[in-house]
Amino acid sequence: MPLPVSPEILVVLGTRPEAIKLFPLIQLLQDHPRLRPVVVSTGQHKELVEYVLETAGCEITADLGVGRPGLGLNQLTAAVVSGLDDFVTGRYGPPPNHISGRVTRDHYPAACVVHGDTSSASAAAVAAFHLRIPVAHVEAGLRTGTTLSPFPEELNRQLIGRIASFHAAPTRANVQNLVREGVDIGRTFVTGNTGIDALQWSAARQVPYDRPELEWLEDDTTSRVVTVTAHRRENWGEGIADIARAVRRLTETHPDVRFVVPVHPNPAVAQTVRAELDDVPAVTLTSPMEYRPFARLLARSTLVLTDSGGIQEEAPAFGVPVLVARSTTERSEGVEAGTLELVGTDRDRIVAAATRVLDDPEARAAFSRQPNPYGDGHAADRIVAALEHLVFNTPVPRTSGPGFVRSEVLEWAGFHRTDAVDGPTFERESVTTGHEPADLEGVVIQPLTADGPPDTDGGA
Ligand code: UDP
After folding, report:
1. At the top level of CATH, which class does the domain 6-192+378-428 belong to?
2. 292 alpha carbon – ligand 1 mean position (Å)
3. Which residues are catalytic?
4. Cα of 308 from ligand 1 centre, angstroms
């Protein structure tokens, strides 16, 4: 029997990284036969978000217009909370107040997805809580352990961690962080990072590198390519110079290898790199690349030498060995799995490690023997399977890690269980939300159909 309406999943995002890491989920929800995404952009990085989502074929349902430059954190938070409240009450009417409705049978969002650690994500989580919409947190459980660093992201993560009913954690270590803070393990799910899904999708598009100095790479499918990036503050000066000197040395010992170095725009970095490598024919210096060609370059590489954080998670997704030009890394799971090797910035040490990887196929293969702990490109599939299970009680998705329990998530979200003849159902508990019934005069509410989603995406 068809359900009366297709439950909608709010997806709230505001910044470019959020758009990148959420588009794989939005794509799957757009194609889903029974769930529908309602994408709300806060308007912070308006054009960048629109560009990312448009290239991924994702539609934005509403823009809250919170894009004024120079907006303080409190103003931003207030604007997102009230903007989302207006949007939700305008589209769906007031929150269920003294009325109960089954998870699948009331026209009210089944969940509100927020991502990561921005202030707009934590504001959206608070607003969703007040509106009695269960919050699903994507990229949950990252912690530095120092509430003020990074500011305000670390506290935003913790706040969302308190509010969320369902936590999609990239790794097992992220779940452990949540459990240490008192989150029931049954409300967590190890999914991998959706950023890896986005990266693989982007690399597969094979968009042109689109700059003259990389034209040779369009046609060259045989040369081995080493990609090098360096920009961390602790490496400024001698560290970056040593990384560049190591590259120069490797061009002498490995004349068949080409090196591509997207140079960070910071003058402290760029001057050092250019001074060491400008005149080396096997080295292509280029400015920072757009995300999709950079994903393609990573996938094309034989080896990556980097001090970047994100790239330590990304390159192993293509089975590419990563030498980390730092003395420590917060990506310890990658070092333990063997997808990363810490080499510091000492020139000779970098040269020795790179030589081993370039010359010894067995050493190269060792890097890709273990799965990338940060994701296999199917994080969004797992999250959608989890949402489906929560909303429709479909079979429990295959777990990655300890798994989660539907009733725990729903009960935390304020649904209570009743056992009906056709099996258990979960209904919203009656709680006074304090919302006056909204004045809906002039507001267009999407018509509900008895047999599936409406044709258009109405909405505000
Ligand atoms: N990146 C990019 N173009 C580049 C270099 C990096 O799109 O030329 C991407 C990279 O894939 C990663 C993100 O930028 O997802 C951040 O990497 P970065 O090295 O700037 O910094 P970190 O992760 O250390 O903050």
Report:
1. alpha beta
2. 11
3. 117, 139, 153, 231, 233, 264
4. 7
- Do 179 and 188 contact (CB within 8 A), yes or no? yes
Instruction: Select 210-366's CATH number: 3.30.360.10, 3.40.50.2000, 2.40.30.20, 3.40.50.960.
Output: 3.40.50.2000
Q: What is the C-alpha separation between 191 and 169, in angstroms, rounded?
A: 6
Q: What is the pLDDT of residues 145-157, one digit of tens each?
A: 888 888 999 999 9
> What's the maximum distance between 2 C-alpha atoms anywhere in the chain?
78
Q: Over the stretch 115-129, which tens digit does the pLDDT of each residue have?
A: 999 999 999 999 999
- Packing angle, helices 379-392 and 194-204, rounded to 10: 120
Kindly state the helix (H) or strand (E) to which residue 310 belongs, with its residue range. Answer: helix 310-314
Q: Which residues are registered as beta bridge partners of 415?
A: 428
In angstroms, what is the span from residue 430 Cα to ligand 1's centroid? 47
Contacts of 345 (CB under 8 A, 6+ apart): 235, 238, 239, 240, 242, 243, 307, 325, 326, 327
Question: Encoding tokens for residue 21?
Answer: 């890491």
**Low-confidence residues of the chain: pLDDT under 50:** 1-4, 98-101, 105, 437-460
Query: Can you tell me the distance from the alpha carbon of 41 to that of 63, in angstroms, rounded to the nearest whole number?
Result: 5
pLDDT of residue 98: 40
For the Cβ of 203 lying below 6 angstroms from any atom of ligand 1, the answer is: no
